[in-house]
Amino acid sequence: MKKRINIAIDGPSGVGKTVMSTMLAKKLEYKFLSSGSFYRVIAYNAILNNIDLENEQAVNDAWHIEDLHVTEDDKIIFKNEDVTLKIREDNISRGASSIAKFPSVREKVNKFIQTFGAKYKGIIVDGRDATYRILPDAEVKFFLWATPEVRAMRRVKQDHEMGIESKYEDVLESMKIRDYNDMNRAVDPLKVSEGSIEIDTSDMSIDENFEAMYQEVLKRL
């Protein structure tokens, strides 16, 4: 049986964590768990049940770790309902952003991912605190970086390809504000954790970035 390991990927907004996680999961035949999806599920549940999104205890008391399940084909099941598509709606996304700041909610989401990773070995997790809070015991930990200017250019290009109009200056300003907030927040700030492999992707193509990460993973398999 092939050795299977867990992988955690950190980094700022717009650096390509999700793209790299998806590519690695496909190549390695691993499961990609995006922590953001689970915050969407909790927000969906709160909104469905008319719970005040500012009430941390009520939001967190309304769900149990056992309610969540990820299927073989990556569908997210919550309380026996397939919510994979429902949690992509805009109002759910905004709700997820509100409740993701609650320490008790973050702790519970992390516990779910940690339990899943221990049971099913071979998962990839991304997030701004993936390497030191979500999966501190991951066998491979990455911290991806790129300058805000490069990330803003990539985001604008991506937006245009999706038919979304966005201005480079606005996106850049937004990135810088988000970086500052992420690095200076009191709970789980963005940082390079001990044991993380740092990769500056500023001058890398997607394929070059992937190859650099894939080679690091191979060293540990």
Report on this structure.
The protein is α/β, with parallel strands linked by helices and 221 residues long. It has 2 domains: 117 residues, Rossmann fold (3-Layer(aba) Sandwich), CATH 3.40.50.300; 91 residues, P-loop containing nucleotide triphosphate hydrolases (Rossmann fold), CATH 3.40.50.300. Helix content is 49%, strand content 14%. The strands form 2 sheets. Strands 2-6-1-7-8 form a 5-stranded parallel sheet, with helices on both faces. Strand 3 and strand 4 form a beta hairpin. Helix 1 crosses helix 9, helix 2 crosses helix 4 and helix 7 crosses helix 8. The radius of gyration is 17 Å and the shape is globular. It starts with 6 loop residues before the first strand and ends with a helix. The relative contact order is 0.20. The model has no long low-confidence stretch (mean pLDDT 92). Its EC number is 2.7.4.25. Belongs to the cytidylate kinase family. Type 1 subfamily. This is Cytidylate kinase. It catalyses: dCMP + ATP = dCDP + ADP; CMP + ATP = CDP + ADP. One of its GO terms (molecular function) is kinase activity.
Provide the fold topology:
Blueprint (H helix, E strand, L loop, with lengths): L6 E4 L6 H12 L2 E4 H14 L7 H6 L6 E3 L5 E3 L2 E2 L7 H10 L3 H18 L2 E4 L3 H5 L5 E6 L2 H14 L6 H17 L12 E4 L5 H13 L3
Parallel strand pairs: 1-6, 1-7, 2-6, 7-8
Antiparallel strand pairs: 3-4, 4-5
Helix pairs in contact: 1-9, 2-4, 7-8
Subcellular location: Cytoplasm
InterPro entries: Cytidylate_kin (IPR003136), Cytidylate_kinase_dom (IPR011994), P-loop_NTPase (IPR027417)
Organism: Metamycoplasma neophronis
